[in-house]
Amino acid sequence: MIPPERLLKASPLMALYTVRSERLLCKQLDYNLLFRWFLDMNWDEPVFDRSSFSRNRARCLSTTWRVSFSSP
What we know:
The chain has helices at about 5-15, 20-30, 35-40, 50-70. The protein is mostly helical. It has one domain (about 5-65).
C-alpha cells in the first residue's frame, strides 16, 4: 500500500515535469533522485508498481478525498 501523502505529492510532480503516465513516473523513480527526494523515499527503497499506484489512487479518491472535498 502506498501512503496517501505520496499519492498527493506525485500528482503535482507529474504535472510539473510533464510525466505522462504512472508507468513513466515509476520508471523515473528508478533513477531520478529528485523525484525520490520529493516523495520522501530512500534511495534503496523499492519503487511501487504502477498498478498499485493506480489502485491506491482510485481507493483514495473514492473514500477520503471525496468526503473531504464534497460540499456540505
